[in-house]
Design a protein that fits this description.
Length: 129
């Protein structure tokens, strides 16, 4: 048995992620057609290293791919763009379902913003850091 105060099934967690995506304005959702958004238990060591985090530091989500503002028509991305949302770190961080829903929404928006081309500094200024 886990000592986490909050632990949802993968399906229930994925539904919250889908609801967060549905609340994003249509103009932004329209650019997500070729982006895979998946729920994973936790990030891999390589994912943590990619963002400069150690093995015990929490990572709620990650965008892997080429941001829209860095794309070239002559040199398209080799792999599909992917956003991973990590269930275990989010549940470990949140004490209530309401807090979890809010953190999932912030994480989804944050990672989509990276896909669109926002930097961490820009997201911090907008309150999504």
């Amino acid at each position: 048995m886990s000592d986490r105060p909050l632990q949802l099934t993968t399906e229930a967690f994925a539904r919250i992620v889908e609801q967060a995506i549905a609340r994003i304005p249509e103009e932004i959702r329209a650019v997500l057609d070729n982006v895979l958004i998946s729920v994973k238990d936790r990030p891999t060591a390589a994912m943590l290293a990619e963002v400069g985090l150690g093995p015990d530091e929490p990572l709620f989500g990650i965008f892997l791919g080429v941001p829209l503002n860095e794309r070239s028509l002559a040199d398209p991305p080799l792999y599909p763009d992917t956003i991973h949302i990590f269930q275990d770190p989010l549940e470990e961080y949140c004490a209530t379902r309401e807090q979890l829903i809010e953190e999932i929404e912030i994480t989804v928006v944050h990672e989509i913003a990276h896909f669109v081309g926002f930097s961490d500094e820009e997201l911090e200024r907008l309150g999504y850091g």
